[in-house]
Amino acid sequence: MWKYERKLEFPVNIKKKDFNLANYIVTQLGGPDGELGAFLRYFCQSFTMPDENSKLLLREIATEELAHIEIICEMLKQLTDEKNIEKIKKEHFGGHYADHMLGIFPTNASGYPYNAIHFASKGDYITDLVEDMAAEAKAKATYEALMDLTEDLDVLRVLEFLREREIVHFQRFGECLMRLKKDA
Questions:
Q1: With a threshold of 0.90, does the pTM exceed it?
Q2: Residue 181: which of 138, 135, 124, 131 has the closest Cα?
């Protein structure tokens, strides 16, 4: 089904190491409104959509969420790719370092590991698409909160791109819902 292209959907070129910011950005990997949950939600829901077009839409967006996971992981790598123990301690990255060193691990911003409870799949297209629209709105809000927490232009560029994709996904899910309701 997938063919991996060896390039990011959006370039990441962060010059400044910032362990503290990584503590926040990781929530878009493994937090309640993060990209990992989005991928699982849309992919699992796609199998019970009522027609081929809606199945394909959810799988297409799920695939893009995988690309967003890759972008978030690259951001985390670039923000933390420096074994500077004093900086790790000073920037409150010690808990992560103790458990994972500089490895990337899906957690929320408080350090709690990813939990599949973060996504829903009911098998009812109205319920699932409304859930998906809410998930995209929450992810957009999380990206905006992350943007409030940094002035690093290299980071802001990427967060703005990801926020815009949440808006597009919200719109596409809404269009799908309206089409399916009309066809019912």
A1: yes
A2: 124
